[in-house]
Amino acid sequence: MAQTITEKILAFHAGFDEVEPGQLIEAKVDIALANDVTAPIAIAEFEKLGVEKVFDDERVLLIPDHFTPNKDIKSAEQAKILREFAKKQGLKNYFEIGRVGIEHVLLPEQGLVLPGDLIVGADSHTCTYGALGAFATGVGSTDLAAAMATGKVWLKVPETIKVVYHGKLAPWVEGKDLILHTIGILKVDGALYQALEMTGETIDTLPMYGRMSMANMAIEAGAKNGIIAPDEITLDYVRSRAQRDYTLFASDPDAVYCKTIEIDASAIRPQVAYPPLPDKSRSVDQAAADKIEIDQVVIGSCTNGRIEDFRLAASLLKGRKAAPYMRLLIIPGTQDVYRQMIKEGLTEIFLDAEALISPPTCGPCLGGHMGVLAAGERAVATTNRNFVGRMGHPESEVYLSNPAVAAASAILGRIAAPEEVL
Amino acid sequence: MNNIQGKAWKFGDDVDTDAIIPARYLNTSDPLELAKHCMEDADTGFAGKVKAGDIMVAGKNFGCGSSREHAPIAIKAAGVACVIAPTFARIFYRNAFNTGLLILESVEAAAAIEAGHEVAINSTTGTIDDLTSGQRFKAQPIPDFMQKLLDDGGLMEHWRKRLESS
């Protein structure tokens, strides 16, 4: 029977030749990961189970990235639970402050998540790794605890929605815009319980960082996983980083999809998702016409915290400054991204633009720290969620965009198209 | 026999996990601390108003957003005995089972039950009675596999039994 890439990866990890949507499987896990918010509960559940050791000390990953550098005593206590567990278990992939980065930027960069993997993470944006041709899905802490102990997870094989993107992208249009546009079509529950497979000639030439922005936000349409079949672009990214073998899977040409959506990507303008849901996407021209004044711009996150994202922002910020009273926050996704920003002179450009450069952290994306909003304040962010209260006070607002729109908006003090500052 | 009875609290579509428990409170996983802030940004003071055994009735895609297990933990610790919605976001659905929060899927009940109605639920049969309006609804049955996990005492108990017998 013809299979989709998602079905093939699941079948492979469940020890079957094939699986079909709706089938319940118990699958072998390649990587299980958690952060400083979700790991403490997972560790407590793991310890209740009475199992001595995790299933594999190289494949259970702990990444304290949410409230780090520790924002208060409670956060420090949470982070300490991870550190002590990592020491006790001898985990090879625990990332201390100074080495840690935003998990979904860090793990692909370090070659720890690879094509063909089955990855479960106690973080909903674990779906990012689908950009590498892996099956990756978010789970809660208890599911993660079971996976840490047994190396297995139960899953229902999802149906797959195929989204085919045609045409060449216009200037300033990024993977982020493709996914915001797509979520605008699907709505926030349009892919509930389903896989979202992204394909077509636009994807064939889309660089890895754009693919990661896309897979990252599959969850914002409710999807179980987002996935892009691995190709030469994937292999170029993975080859020099991979720390173990990997397997390439692809959908059969006659694989069965529950729905196929065709999108003319050449017609898409940069997108802005209005609060309070990621599916409220409009063109940046509409947003510019709406004259939306802003107080803060955040460039970073697991969606857009990669070096290419900062190059894009810097290309507009070079020789320009953030508007008066504007807080422009630049948050490199990892230490390597930070170092590369310095090498390429991007930090100089950002400092000249009077931006604040933060250490790698999830920080403001979830209203945690390092840039929380007051009542009535508005932000443009390259993050992934704009729910009520997401970045701070319940009466603050977040507009989602790509890094170029965010940079242009920081310069003009209102939501702006990149062309407006050139 | 109805084993749950309480007052209905209504919420809209796409209630996200930041509404259920804002991330600013996730620097702890203490259920009672989390319960104090349950639904805070959607209905200020909810945690102080809701009584043990009350029921949340919401629109589609309840629990969308983050994977935080703190969401069902906060709801349960706030005293809510059951959440009724037409659909649940998938991570929340799994988390609810894993943390022992009863959730029932019913398009009809979610639409018909009004705020403040007295609702009785039989968790074994999935029968939902709106005692105020006199209407009766039947929730979607719990999938066999998940029922088996529940019968084992939850996911971790299921694994404990399997690991002990192997």
Helix content of chain B: 25-40%
- The chain-level mean pLDDT of chain B equals 94
Strand content of chain A: 15-25%
Tell me the Rg of chain A in angstroms.
20 Å
How far apart the termini of chain B lie comes to 38 Å
Q: Distance N terminus to C terminus of chain A? A: 53 Å
Radius of gyration of chain B: 16 Å
Percent helix of chain A, as a range, is 25-40%
Mean pLDDT of chain A: 98
The beta-strand count of chain B equals: 7
Write out the strand line-up for the largest beta sheet of chain B, numbering strands in chain order: 4-3-2-1-5-6-7
The strand count of chain A comes to 17
Low-confidence stretches of chain B: none
* Structural class computed from helices and strand pairing of chain A: alpha/beta
Question: Can you tell me about this structure?
Answer:
The complex is a heterodimer of chains A (422) and B (166). Chain A has helices spanning 5-14, 39-49, 73-89, 103-109, 141-150, 175-186, 201-204, 208-216, 232-239, 284-289, 301-304, 307-317, 335-343, 346-352, 403-412, and strands at 24-28, 31-35, 60-63, 118-122, 135-138, 152-156, 160-166, 195-199, 225-227, 259-264, 271-273, 281-283, 296-300, 327-331, 356-357, 378-381, 397-400. Chain A is of the alpha/beta class and 422 residues long. In chain A, the strands form five sheets. Chain A has a five-stranded parallel sheet. In chain A, strands 3-2-4-5 form a four-stranded parallel sheet, with helices on one face. The mean pLDDT of chain A is 98. Chain B is built from eight helices and seven strands; from the N terminus they run E-H-H-H-E-H-E-H-E-H-E-E-E-H-H. At the A-B interface, helix 2, helix 3 and helix 5 of A face helix 5 and helix 8 of B.
